[in-house]
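Running log. JK asked me to keep both predictions on one page so they can be read side by side. First protein, sequence followed by its tokens:
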Amino acid sequence: MSVTPSSMQALPDRMKGAVLTPQGIAIRELPVPQVGSTELLVKVRASSLNRADLFLAEGRVHGGHGGAGTPLGLEWSGDVVATGGDVTAFKVGDRVMCSGIGGLSEYAVADWRRTFAFPQRNLGYEAAACLPVSLRTTHVAIATTGKLEKGESVLVLGASSGVGLMSLQVAKLLGAGRVIGTSTKADRRARLGEFGADVAIDSNDANWVEQVLEHTAGQGVDLLIDFLAGPLINDSMRAVKVGGRIVNVGRMAGESGHFDFDLHSMRRIQYLGTTFRTRSADEVQEIQHQVQADLWPALEAGRLGVPIDATLPIGRVNEAFDLMKTNGHFGKIVLTQS
């Protein structure tokens, strides 16, 4: 660990953090984590919830973590207070946006290759805590895996989540033509246009595929970014043009469903999956370089961001998880250490 004398004196041995217990989520006193050679120790200022946090809260395994005793929190922002011996890209005092495990604590460690420095603008900790996962996920889904070409049409299925809203913005930024977003709630559909959607559709409507076709000259979209999956997969294939692409990012509607292989073959659809759970830190670092090359100017200019629906102190962590479970939010739920 590399620390300055002043930061060494300031670091406590114990901290408060949210962990999964046999009785549910609880705030416990924990040891301050030690940094490895490629890690940063971050004084957490704000954390944001993701769907994957719900999996951990249910006791399921996500990315090698899970079960009782698991420290919670996959995405956070804060200040670097210590660095591992192999870290040269960051120093004590830097403001950073991180992903990893244990972000719902006073201190958390993150590999420097999974960490972004704050962009050069007046960005608050709460807003910054909403960005690392959404920036990486959307760039991979749209640019790398989805191979979006300028002028192509894009459908974001399940667009009112934080990463869904970022997908609308990134698709437009990277040159998409018509962008369509779906949400099952009318008030959310009314706001999708603020984030780049040209058309908003209710995926619970029995005729939603026909509406997509109506807005794409009867052909379907070139690229579908899918956060829902499950029982919607066959309708999704009907909403994509012959030879088009579907990138499966999330499975909010279900992790399995009937798959019409003949429809898939007849429409010659490329069905592609993406996740970060099976990527090495070096792979993530390369993705971060691509994100910074393509998205950072817009981020610094304030043209990219995710709305925060609710900001709660860490002591109300169970309330925050309950809100996410009900799917009653638009954008992100943030927890602060104050």
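And the second, directly underneath as requested:
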Amino acid sequence: MEVMMKLLCILWLLTNGLLFSSSLAEKQRPPPFGFIKGLEGSRKSNKTRAGISELKHYLERFGYLSYNGSDIHADDDVFDDHLERAIRAYQVNYHLNVTGALDNDTASQMMQPRCGVPDIINGTNTMARHLITTSSHGHGSHGLHIVGHYSFLSGMPKWPPSKARTPTAARAPVARAFQTWASATFFRFYEVSNYASADLKVAFYRGDHGDGSPFDGPGGVIAHAFAPAQGWFHYDADEAYSVGAVSGRLDYQTVALHEIGHLLGLGHSQVANAIMYPFISSGTTKGLNADDIQGIKALYGM
């Protein structure tokens, strides 16, 4: 059955006022994850190192570390057992050498701009729990085994059959991103003019530090989306965007493809070439990977 999902792009005018203008002070502000470089080489045997508390907060933000709000070590600079285990879990998720230490490869990975949705949600590692092996027995494919690294958001939320989609977004790159997902699914997206009736809302949002927003200035968290059926997708308005691959800028469509995956119910993937991989590089474009398509079809039983 074809279902219908409505899309409304709002606050688009903020692109001109916010995305491509920034003050000199903002340009000189250090990158949000830049502090990690100074901690490179940290390991449990070091015991204490200034700035380790920031690393703990980074890993807590993306779900790898939890002190349950009461542990006295949550805000100190001690490289404890909890931190070592968190780094090991991170290294497993990103196919890095599992050392438990903040080595060069791990630090470099952590400093990349990324999606703000945590990799581990309420203790569930969304990137590792769906290593699903399937076999196809169709013509010419006997014995073929495909391993999927896609994941679903906690609780496997998804849009009910009463809703559907085909994107005709307010701006072409976002529209193309919705159309790309539509081509891989039975969904159709339509733009609506009535805000209250929209299931999906796309906006540019500027994080004001300390206001509880997920954004942190240029180069950190670049976008964020909510699981079904909340339907919100936010770009970070502090980032520099472009249509297509432009050095130093993020491609609108690539970011939209990733976040729409979350809107539909997918979590993060361990496959670096998948659109649902948490990190998005500037100056590049990216499309759907076989892992992304396997994931969305498995979620909706297509």
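Observation for JK regarding the second prediction: The chain has two domains: 4-24+129-300, 34-111.
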